[in-house]
Amino acid sequence: MQDIHVSPDNVKEVEPHIRGALRRARFSVAVTGAGISCASGLPLLRERVEGVPLNEFFRAELWRARPDVYYRLYRRLLSEWRRARPNAAHDALARRGVWVITQNIDGLHRDAGTHHLIELHGNLRELRCITCGHVYGTDLVWRFPVPRCPRCHQVLHPGISLEGEEIRHYSLAVDWVGRCEVLYVVGTSLQKDPVRRLPELARRRGALVVWLNDEAERLLPRLLTGATVSSG
């Protein structure tokens, strides 16, 4: 089955086919990336925060070598992302009951009410100790320049997977995609391993793969629920 790439220019043409597939499907899954959260005001990896390229935030070298710089950036991001709210694309996935596999760390799918959710890279709203395994909320970030574990005093690791670290629950994500009949890929081009393998897995099982990378906050509600969302 051929993939469908949805854009503002072709949505009228492809909408009947996608909505028909959705009606027939018993199980649908979405894989989401940073693009779905742009309409919520969150930055993309190519942007700079506190003078630091945002992609540096996901590199373990900065956390290990300069935890003071790392957590200054963390506090800035956390303060911005705590103000963010789910947009119409997050809401549409939750209302339709689509199971979500996200590469994002912003927690907006949780806030939208998605019940079946895999956060492959973890969540910005947690800290964890890699020595003793305890997990904490982010209050320690505001109390100390470099948060440490209250039990063993090691520098806390952000509750996200940094570059080179294993992503979470990937085998479960493979199981979901292997069983779905429609796979939505929203706000991501899935260029990196291992997530780039997921669409091919869905294709091999006969699923329809639908890509939305432009104006997902407007087009996805239309496709999933029939709702019209203003582009303004």
Automatic annotation (TrEMBL):
It comes from the Bacteria. GO terms for molecular function: histone deacetylase activity, NAD-dependent; metal ion binding; NAD+ binding. Gene3D superfamilies: SIR2/SIRT2 'Small Domain, TPP-binding domain. Residues 8-232 form the Deacetylase sirtuin-type domain. Keywords: Metal-binding, NAD, Transferase, Zinc. Its EC number is 2.3.1.286. Pfam families: SIR2. Zn(2+) binds at residues 129, 132, 149, 152. The active site is at 121 (proton acceptor). InterPro entries: DHS-like_NAD/FAD-binding_dom, NAD-dep_sirtuin_deacylases, Sirtuin, Sirtuin_cat_small_dom_sf, Ssirtuin_cat_dom. This is protein acetyllysine N-acetyltransferase. It comes from Alicyclobacillus macrosporangiidus.
